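*Target chain*
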Amino acid sequence: MPGYRDEWERRLLDDPDLLGDMAFAIGGPFHVMYPARVGRNIDGFRAVFERFGVEGAIFYGKKANKAGCVVRACAEHGAGVDVASVGELRAALAHGVRGDELVVTGPAKSEELLWLAARHGALIAIDELGELNRLVALGLPARILLRVLPPGSSSRFGMTDGELDVALTGTDLGPVRLEGFSFHLSGYDPVARSEMAAALVDRCRAARALGHPVFTISIGGGFAVDYVPADAWRAFTEHAGPHWFHAGKRFDSYYPYHCPTPGPAMLAAVLEHGELGALLRDNGIRLAIEPGRALLDRAGSTVFRVQGAKTRTAHDNPYQLLTVDGTSLSLSEQWFDSEYLPDPVLWPTRPGDPTPAAVGAATCLESDLLSWRRIPLPRAAEPGDLLVYPNTAGYQMDSNESPFHQLPIPPKVVLHDAPGGRLRWTLDAE
């Protein structure tokens, strides 16, 4: 399951010293971030909006990664940030995103979050009538979207048709200005998003007839990432089973690590279906998106040092059982009872015989494995080697990390391009 590798990653892996020097300086597991790739991902989404002639707004879903360098890249490339807490709001401002470039999401927001969001002119996605009443009671000018519960959904988020009608006709909004509607759908179906957005165009027209200056529909995030080639994913899904995993481990589901229409291509599919792009243009409606993982595609990797190696046998075939200096909290699929499947790279490159290996964590938990699957490494791993897991910036590297066993949380290293094709690094300021 080889992951795609960007030019910056090839430079990092090909450098005879850089990774080793970083590992020596940090002394434990760490994450590598390349924010220039975030900028290119933002530009890719913007190019789709321009191709369809649709006004678009891009808000980075900050929960996907806490790195300050990502927010800075958003500020430099004209993207806003989606925040859901006071801490996230403050961090976004601290790294250069202006208040009116924020969208504040999440349920039943605290008084402090509502107050700060209103003071900074952020766009606030209102999830329920009580929250709307609390915001109005502040007496501050504020910009809002009403979050819509999708038809047939059992989600705890969003407002029903009846609640939306009360918000639109039965509430004195005072200085609060309704600018549009938002929704979120699970899964990665562009057709469902397109049809839901088209249905909300009618609601926008009705709200305008009531005097509300509505001009935005937010379709949320859920833009898939393509991690591995189609043939590798097909081979895995057709043949994988407990015989490929340490201790006969079974998983019920996996993230779809191959996607033929990821990121910007998925946005294009949304705008193409039912001529949504033309419908938005004709009605003067801006389409907002809130991608997290998709803006972090190929923008970071996670590095562990091998601390020990055992030999075990399965189906009469020997394999290594490695222990590294971190935990599977830094590859969070395991904590959703799933597996992070893109193969890690064994560094440094040396001659040797192909050797399968499962990868365990430096904890006392039997279940704490980074890779239950026996990875086909190009040689036997040795203590001191590094395992570099690719494309972990989106949700993997810090959504579930904790100082378990009082192990330090892995720091983030930020790579910068330097003259002569070199890479320089510094620590991120989260």
User: Anything to note?
Assistant: The two ends are 31 Å apart (CA to CA). The CA atoms of residues 47 and 264 lie 8 Å apart. The first strand starts at residue 30 and ends at 33.
